[in-house]
Amino acid sequence: NELTSNILLHLFSQYSNQFNTNNLNNVKIILSKLKCISTNQGMKLPQQSYISSANLSKDLPQITFDISSEYSLSIEFLKSIGCRTIDFSITTITNHLNSTDNNQTLQDLIQNLLKQRENMSDTDVNALGNTPCFAGINGETKRNYKANELHFPSVAKEVQWKDLSVIDWIDINPFSQEYIFLKELGVKEAPDFQDLFLHITQEHNQSSKIKSEYQLPPSLIYFAENFRKYYLKIWENNKIIQIPFLPSSSPPHINQSTEVILTIPQLVFKETSPLFPSLLPDVIRCFSHCFDISLLGIKSRPDLQIAFDILIDKQYEILTIESASLYFSYLNKLDGLNKTFIENISKKSFIPYSSSSSYSKPSQIFIRS
């Protein structure tokens, strides 16, 4: 009930300095999920409850704890468990925007909010960042966005991305308090890597794919130059990449095309191979200037088991008496020959022995002497 909740919150507030950091954080997480805050509209979750002030609408659920009572609570404690101090509803923000000079709306809004930052709880900051009230430009279209949907203008310029959504503040100072505040709200200093890969695909499709004429997509160069700064940690948590973004050559004996293709890191190698795509030399050079491309999981050549599996998948398309020496010679150069591999392939029919696309197991073939 309300009294019990007030007493417990009072105790947590009074003795919070006696908890170790982990225990205190756990307590705050639990409290943030409970309807434990007494308001003028009944018991509410902390994130639904506002610390009373003259600037708040009377329609909002305001906390009714008496700060001077026997079971008093500190405002800082209330903020730490998620209680609100400011209303960032669309209506409130829109009214503010409509009351300012159209040419200065974003700057004026941010500077005004920055003055209130000291009084905001983390929940306030999160709510503000998720409110679509920030003027942004996407190509020639201007509208309001959430902070995490926008980028700083310098990003679009560096990556050469004309229709990237950026804040409508072209000359913002990257060392200013306003810049730091916008970054805290979620405005990005680099595109999400999935979006960047999709843009690489667009740039690739819009240019010549003939090898002799091919130019690396600007977004790929940006990715290489900024990988360590913005993408390394994210990459380590997303090892399986599904969007092809690496310019490569097709296996020459499988695909006679002279066009550049895009591949994923798991299926491309640095060395030319009769079974796998290989990275363009320009791609290897581009990345080598910035970091070791093995950080992307790219190897010089595949393991024997991987190469053999691909050969089996395509054997009816590519494996003939005439081509067998090419592929078996390649497999012979790869690492991974062991007892398990030998036992595995001994059960498969993959050795061509006539022109009629017939295959035998190793135990069924004799070596001519």
TrEMBL record:
Superkingdom as given in the UniProt entry: Eukaryota
Pfam families xref list: DUF3684 (PF12449)
PANTHER family for this protein: DOMAIN PROTEIN, PUTATIVE (AFU_ORTHOLOGUE AFUA_6G04830)-RELATED
Protein's name in the database: Uncharacterized protein
